[in-house]
Design a protein that fits this description.
The chain is an alpha/beta fold. It has 3 helices and 4 strands, in the order βααββαβ. A two-stranded parallel sheet has the order 1-2. Strands 3-4 form a two-stranded parallel ribbon. β3, α3 and β4 form a beta-alpha-beta unit.
Length: 124
């Protein structure tokens, strides 16, 4: 008989068929207000600073208390995906609103928010 190689160590098999979808109330509220033009970013164009972005987001920061982003270190992101809004369609924003939103994602999203499937933009 030949010697048999030992079996490789295996991680626990997961019975979860897909990632569990979570919603970000902070980004959802912000995107809804951008889409309904309650936040106007056209006056600052693309020269908006991080401090100006944080000043605009100050009124939404109370929602971070309930946002999964706040608990990012205690959640297992291998099994979770975080959606930026609650709609089933793609939200269309202006270019300036989209640039503003990407800065918000960079500042508050911690790499957990992906806008590509949820938000697009027009030139004007």
């Amino acid at each position: 008989m030949t010697t048999r190689l030992p079996q490789p160590a295996r991680n626990g098999i997961s019975a979860i068929p897909g990632k569990y979808e979570l919603l970000s109330p902070f980004f959802s509220h912000l995107i809804n207000d951008l889409a309904s033009e309650q936040i106007n970013t056209s006056h600052v164009m693309d020269a908006i600073t991080d401090m100006q972005v944080m000043d605009v987001c100050k009124t939404y920061e109370h929602l971070l208390k309930y946002d999964p982003i706040t608990y990012r270190d205690s959640l297992n992101w291998d099994y979770l995906i975080l959606h930026p809004h609650n709609l089933t369609n793609v939200v269309t924003l202006t270019l300036y609103e989209y640039r503003f939103l990407t800065k918000v994602v960079r500042l508050y999203g911690h790499g957990l928010i992906n806008l590509s499937s949820f938000v697009n933009f027009t030139e004007l």
